[in-house]
Amino acid sequence: MKKVAVLFGGNSSEKEVSLHTGLAVIEAIKDQHHVEAINIDDNYTSLHKKLLDIDVVFIALHGGYGEDGRLQKYFERHNIKYTGSSYKASQIAMDKNRTKLIAKKNKIPILNWVILKNSNNYNLDNLKFPLIIKPNDGGSTIGLYYCKNLNDFKINIQKSFTESKILMVEEYIKAREISVPILDGQVLPIIEIYPKGFLYDYDSKYKSHGSSYEVPAQIKDSISRKLANDALLIYNKIGCRHYARVDFLLSDDNYYLLEINTLPGLTSTSLLPKSALKIGLSYKNLINKIIELSFFN
Predict the structure, then answer these.
(1) Which helix (H) or strand (E) is 180 found in, with range?
(2) Radius of gyration of the chain measured on its C-alpha atoms
(3) pLDDT beyond 70 at 71
(4) Which domains does the chain have, with CATH numbers?
(5) Could you give the CA distance from residue 280 to residue 212 in angstroms, rounded to a whole number?
(6) Residues involved in catalysis
(7) Whose CB among 85, 201, 247, 282 lies 3.0–4.6 Å from 262's, allowing a Cys bridge?
Protein backbone atom coordinates (compact mmCIF):
# COMPACT_ATOMS: atom_id res chain seq x y z
CA MET A 1 0.00 0.00 0.00
CA LYS A 2 1.26 3.44 -0.90
CA LYS A 3 1.16 6.41 1.43
CA VAL A 4 -0.97 9.11 -0.16
CA ALA A 5 -1.47 12.58 1.27
CA VAL A 6 -4.73 14.17 0.09
CA LEU A 7 -4.39 17.94 0.19
CA PHE A 8 -7.62 19.96 0.23
CA GLY A 9 -9.12 23.20 1.54
CA GLY A 10 -6.81 26.07 0.69
CA ASN A 11 -7.55 29.77 0.82
CA SER A 12 -9.17 30.45 -2.55
CA SER A 13 -12.78 31.31 -3.30
CA GLU A 14 -13.14 27.68 -4.42
CA LYS A 15 -12.33 26.26 -0.98
CA GLU A 16 -15.79 24.72 -0.53
CA VAL A 17 -15.47 22.84 -3.83
CA SER A 18 -12.04 21.60 -2.76
CA LEU A 19 -13.43 20.20 0.48
CA HIS A 20 -15.95 18.11 -1.46
CA THR A 21 -13.26 16.87 -3.86
CA GLY A 22 -10.84 16.03 -1.06
CA LEU A 23 -13.36 14.07 0.99
CA ALA A 24 -14.53 12.15 -2.09
CA VAL A 25 -10.95 11.22 -3.01
CA ILE A 26 -10.22 10.06 0.55
CA GLU A 27 -13.32 7.88 0.60
CA ALA A 28 -12.36 6.34 -2.75
CA ILE A 29 -8.82 5.28 -1.80
CA LYS A 30 -8.91 4.70 1.97
CA ASP A 31 -9.14 0.91 1.58
CA GLN A 32 -6.25 0.67 -0.90
CA HIS A 33 -3.76 3.20 0.42
CA HIS A 34 -2.52 4.65 3.68
CA VAL A 35 -4.18 8.06 3.52
CA GLU A 36 -3.05 11.24 5.23
CA ALA A 37 -5.81 13.87 5.02
CA ILE A 38 -4.43 17.40 5.14
CA ASN A 39 -6.84 20.32 5.32
CA ILE A 40 -4.58 23.26 4.54
CA ASP A 41 -5.10 27.01 4.85
CA ASP A 42 -2.89 29.75 3.44
CA ASN A 43 0.42 28.40 4.72
CA TYR A 44 2.10 25.61 2.76
CA THR A 45 5.73 26.70 3.16
CA SER A 46 6.59 24.01 5.72
CA LEU A 47 4.34 21.34 4.29
CA HIS A 48 7.24 19.14 3.18
CA LYS A 49 7.93 18.27 6.86
CA LYS A 50 4.56 16.49 6.99
CA LEU A 51 5.31 14.63 3.78
CA LEU A 52 8.68 13.04 4.52
CA ASP A 53 7.34 9.47 4.40
CA ILE A 54 4.59 10.14 1.81
CA ASP A 55 4.81 8.48 -1.61
CA VAL A 56 2.61 10.98 -3.44
CA VAL A 57 0.40 14.00 -2.79
CA PHE A 58 -3.05 14.03 -4.33
CA ILE A 59 -3.81 17.71 -4.93
CA ALA A 60 -7.54 18.18 -4.34
CA LEU A 61 -7.29 21.96 -4.27
CA HIS A 62 -9.03 24.30 -6.71
CA GLY A 63 -7.99 27.84 -7.58
CA GLY A 64 -5.46 30.03 -5.78
CA TYR A 65 -1.99 28.72 -4.98
CA GLY A 66 -3.23 25.14 -5.37
CA GLU A 67 -3.91 25.49 -9.08
CA ASP A 68 -1.85 28.44 -10.30
CA GLY A 69 1.53 26.70 -10.07
CA ARG A 70 2.83 27.98 -6.75
CA LEU A 71 2.19 24.76 -4.83
CA GLN A 72 3.44 22.65 -7.73
CA LYS A 73 6.68 24.63 -7.87
CA TYR A 74 7.10 24.15 -4.12
CA PHE A 75 6.66 20.38 -4.45
CA GLU A 76 9.12 20.21 -7.31
CA ARG A 77 11.68 22.14 -5.29
CA HIS A 78 11.33 19.59 -2.47
CA ASN A 79 11.24 16.60 -4.85
CA ILE A 80 7.72 15.58 -3.79
CA LYS A 81 5.59 13.60 -6.25
CA TYR A 82 2.11 15.02 -6.83
CA THR A 83 -0.92 14.59 -9.07
CA GLY A 84 -1.90 16.99 -11.81
CA SER A 85 0.02 19.27 -14.13
CA SER A 86 3.48 20.72 -13.53
CA TYR A 87 3.96 24.18 -12.08
CA LYS A 88 4.65 25.73 -15.47
CA ALA A 89 1.56 24.24 -17.13
CA SER A 90 -0.60 25.10 -14.09
CA GLN A 91 0.64 28.69 -14.15
CA ILE A 92 -0.20 29.10 -17.84
CA ALA A 93 -3.60 27.40 -17.69
CA MET A 94 -4.76 29.50 -14.73
CA ASP A 95 -4.05 32.62 -16.78
CA LYS A 96 -6.99 32.76 -19.22
CA ASN A 97 -5.28 35.46 -21.27
CA ARG A 98 -2.13 33.39 -21.85
CA THR A 99 -4.27 30.36 -22.66
CA LYS A 100 -6.24 32.30 -25.29
CA LEU A 101 -3.03 33.66 -26.81
CA ILE A 102 -1.69 30.11 -27.17
CA ALA A 103 -5.02 29.02 -28.66
CA LYS A 104 -4.95 31.93 -31.13
CA LYS A 105 -1.39 31.09 -32.18
CA ASN A 106 -2.48 27.50 -32.83
CA LYS A 107 -5.66 28.48 -34.72
CA ILE A 108 -8.04 27.21 -32.04
CA PRO A 109 -11.21 29.35 -32.25
CA ILE A 110 -11.72 31.90 -29.46
CA LEU A 111 -14.06 34.79 -28.72
CA ASN A 112 -12.83 38.40 -28.83
CA TRP A 113 -11.55 39.67 -25.49
CA VAL A 114 -9.61 42.33 -23.65
CA ILE A 115 -7.75 42.30 -20.33
CA LEU A 116 -8.44 44.99 -17.71
CA LYS A 117 -6.32 45.98 -14.72
CA ASN A 118 -8.16 49.17 -13.77
CA SER A 119 -11.90 49.74 -13.37
CA ASN A 120 -11.58 53.37 -14.46
CA ASN A 121 -9.40 52.91 -17.51
CA TYR A 122 -10.70 50.63 -20.22
CA ASN A 123 -11.35 50.51 -23.94
CA LEU A 124 -14.15 48.34 -25.27
CA ASP A 125 -14.08 49.67 -28.84
CA ASN A 126 -13.13 46.30 -30.31
CA LEU A 127 -15.86 44.39 -28.48
CA LYS A 128 -19.59 44.09 -29.08
CA PHE A 129 -22.21 43.85 -26.35
CA PRO A 130 -23.36 41.73 -24.65
CA LEU A 131 -20.17 40.99 -22.73
CA ILE A 132 -19.01 38.68 -19.97
CA ILE A 133 -16.70 39.91 -17.21
CA LYS A 134 -14.70 37.32 -15.28
CA PRO A 135 -11.47 37.09 -13.27
CA ASN A 136 -8.52 36.26 -15.49
CA ASP A 137 -7.14 33.87 -12.88
CA GLY A 138 -10.26 32.49 -11.22
CA GLY A 139 -12.44 29.44 -11.47
CA SER A 140 -15.90 28.09 -10.68
CA THR A 141 -17.30 31.21 -12.42
CA ILE A 142 -16.91 33.22 -9.21
CA GLY A 143 -16.90 36.91 -10.09
CA LEU A 144 -18.55 36.30 -13.47
CA TYR A 145 -21.06 38.89 -14.71
CA TYR A 146 -23.19 39.26 -17.82
CA CYS A 147 -23.43 42.79 -19.23
CA LYS A 148 -26.04 43.57 -21.86
CA ASN A 149 -24.97 47.22 -22.20
CA LEU A 150 -22.45 49.80 -21.01
CA ASN A 151 -24.46 50.67 -17.90
CA ASP A 152 -24.41 47.02 -16.82
CA PHE A 153 -20.71 46.94 -17.48
CA LYS A 154 -19.94 49.97 -15.29
CA ILE A 155 -21.86 48.43 -12.38
CA ASN A 156 -20.45 44.91 -12.67
CA ILE A 157 -16.84 45.83 -13.35
CA GLN A 158 -16.55 47.16 -9.81
CA LYS A 159 -17.99 43.94 -8.37
CA SER A 160 -15.69 41.70 -10.34
CA PHE A 161 -12.60 43.64 -9.29
CA THR A 162 -13.33 42.56 -5.71
CA GLU A 163 -12.57 38.99 -6.86
CA SER A 164 -9.42 39.62 -8.90
CA LYS A 165 -6.92 42.33 -9.80
CA ILE A 166 -6.96 41.30 -13.46
CA LEU A 167 -10.19 40.79 -15.37
CA MET A 168 -11.05 39.33 -18.74
CA VAL A 169 -13.88 40.94 -20.73
CA GLU A 170 -15.13 38.61 -23.43
CA GLU A 171 -17.87 38.80 -26.04
CA TYR A 172 -20.93 36.74 -25.13
CA ILE A 173 -22.72 34.40 -27.49
CA LYS A 174 -25.72 32.22 -26.76
CA ALA A 175 -24.32 28.73 -27.22
CA ARG A 176 -24.17 25.19 -25.93
CA GLU A 177 -21.86 24.51 -22.97
CA ILE A 178 -19.44 21.74 -23.89
CA SER A 179 -16.71 20.13 -21.80
CA VAL A 180 -13.96 17.82 -23.03
CA PRO A 181 -12.29 15.73 -20.28
CA ILE A 182 -8.79 14.37 -20.83
CA LEU A 183 -7.12 11.55 -18.92
CA ASP A 184 -3.51 10.54 -19.55
CA GLY A 185 -3.50 12.26 -22.94
CA GLN A 186 -6.70 10.57 -24.09
CA VAL A 187 -9.98 12.38 -24.71
CA LEU A 188 -12.91 10.93 -22.76
CA PRO A 189 -16.55 11.17 -23.91
CA ILE A 190 -17.55 14.80 -24.48
CA ILE A 191 -20.12 16.31 -22.11
CA GLU A 192 -22.90 18.80 -22.77
CA ILE A 193 -24.06 20.90 -19.83
CA TYR A 194 -27.61 22.19 -19.50
CA PRO A 195 -27.63 24.90 -16.81
CA LYS A 196 -31.02 25.64 -15.29
CA GLY A 197 -30.17 29.34 -15.08
CA PHE A 198 -29.24 31.84 -17.78
CA LEU A 199 -25.50 31.22 -17.30
CA TYR A 200 -23.45 28.23 -16.23
CA ASP A 201 -22.46 30.01 -13.02
CA TYR A 202 -21.46 28.88 -9.52
CA ASP A 203 -25.02 27.96 -8.52
CA SER A 204 -25.50 25.99 -11.73
CA LYS A 205 -22.31 24.05 -11.08
CA TYR A 206 -22.59 23.27 -7.41
CA LYS A 207 -26.13 23.65 -6.12
CA SER A 208 -28.46 20.67 -6.13
CA HIS A 209 -30.17 20.29 -9.52
CA GLY A 210 -28.45 23.45 -10.82
CA SER A 211 -27.67 21.74 -14.13
CA SER A 212 -28.23 18.53 -16.04
CA TYR A 213 -25.73 16.77 -18.27
CA GLU A 214 -25.55 14.55 -21.32
CA VAL A 215 -22.66 12.14 -21.82
CA PRO A 216 -21.74 11.69 -24.56
CA ALA A 217 -22.99 14.98 -25.98
CA GLN A 218 -25.13 14.74 -29.11
CA ILE A 219 -22.80 16.51 -31.53
CA LYS A 220 -22.00 15.85 -35.19
CA ASP A 221 -19.09 13.43 -35.52
CA SER A 222 -17.11 15.96 -37.54
CA ILE A 223 -17.49 18.61 -34.85
CA SER A 224 -16.77 16.13 -32.04
CA ARG A 225 -13.50 15.23 -33.73
CA LYS A 226 -12.51 18.89 -34.06
CA LEU A 227 -13.39 19.57 -30.40
CA ALA A 228 -11.39 16.55 -29.27
CA ASN A 229 -8.40 17.47 -31.45
CA ASP A 230 -8.32 21.09 -30.29
CA ALA A 231 -8.81 20.11 -26.64
CA LEU A 232 -5.85 17.77 -26.88
CA LEU A 233 -3.85 20.37 -28.81
CA ILE A 234 -4.21 23.05 -26.13
CA TYR A 235 -3.59 20.41 -23.42
CA ASN A 236 -0.30 19.46 -25.06
CA LYS A 237 0.77 22.98 -26.03
CA ILE A 238 0.38 24.14 -22.43
CA GLY A 239 2.16 21.00 -21.23
CA CYS A 240 -0.57 19.48 -19.07
CA ARG A 241 -0.31 15.99 -17.63
CA HIS A 242 -2.39 13.32 -15.86
CA TYR A 243 -5.83 14.89 -16.36
CA ALA A 244 -7.65 18.10 -17.22
CA ARG A 245 -10.93 19.42 -18.58
CA VAL A 246 -11.23 21.76 -21.56
CA ASP A 247 -14.36 23.90 -21.86
CA PHE A 248 -15.89 25.20 -25.08
CA LEU A 249 -18.96 27.01 -26.36
CA LEU A 250 -20.69 25.48 -29.38
CA SER A 251 -23.00 27.49 -31.67
CA ASP A 252 -24.29 25.53 -34.68
CA ASP A 253 -21.05 24.20 -36.19
CA ASN A 254 -18.84 26.89 -34.66
CA TYR A 255 -17.06 26.40 -31.37
CA TYR A 256 -14.87 28.57 -29.15
CA LEU A 257 -12.39 27.68 -26.43
CA LEU A 258 -13.27 29.08 -23.01
CA GLU A 259 -10.55 27.69 -20.73
CA ILE A 260 -8.64 24.65 -19.57
CA ASN A 261 -8.91 23.38 -16.00
CA THR A 262 -5.83 21.54 -14.73
CA LEU A 263 -7.52 20.56 -11.45
CA PRO A 264 -11.20 20.16 -12.33
CA GLY A 265 -13.69 19.07 -9.69
CA LEU A 266 -13.33 15.41 -8.74
CA THR A 267 -16.32 14.56 -6.64
CA SER A 268 -18.13 11.41 -7.73
CA THR A 269 -20.70 13.61 -9.52
CA SER A 270 -18.22 15.99 -11.19
CA LEU A 271 -17.90 16.16 -14.97
CA LEU A 272 -14.69 14.22 -15.49
CA PRO A 273 -15.85 11.22 -13.39
CA LYS A 274 -19.20 11.24 -15.26
CA SER A 275 -17.31 10.96 -18.53
CA ALA A 276 -14.89 8.31 -17.25
CA LEU A 277 -17.81 6.17 -16.13
CA LYS A 278 -19.07 6.07 -19.72
CA ILE A 279 -15.96 4.12 -20.72
CA GLY A 280 -16.31 1.78 -17.75
CA LEU A 281 -13.87 3.56 -15.43
CA SER A 282 -15.43 3.78 -11.97
CA TYR A 283 -14.76 6.73 -9.69
CA LYS A 284 -12.48 4.63 -7.47
CA ASN A 285 -10.50 3.36 -10.47
CA LEU A 286 -10.26 6.88 -11.92
CA ILE A 287 -8.70 8.24 -8.73
CA ASN A 288 -6.28 5.32 -8.53
CA LYS A 289 -5.39 5.82 -12.20
CA ILE A 290 -4.45 9.46 -11.49
CA ILE A 291 -2.32 8.35 -8.53
CA GLU A 292 -0.62 5.74 -10.71
CA LEU A 293 0.16 8.34 -13.39
CA SER A 294 1.95 10.54 -10.86
CA PHE A 295 4.69 7.91 -10.47
CA PHE A 296 5.59 7.91 -14.15
CA ASN A 297 5.57 11.58 -15.18
Answers:
(1) strand 176-183
(2) 19
(3) yes
(4) 3-84 (3.40.50.20), 92-109+174-293 (3.30.470.20), 113-171 (3.30.1490.20)
(5) 21
(6) 14, 140, 206, 245, 247, 259, 261, 265
(7) 85
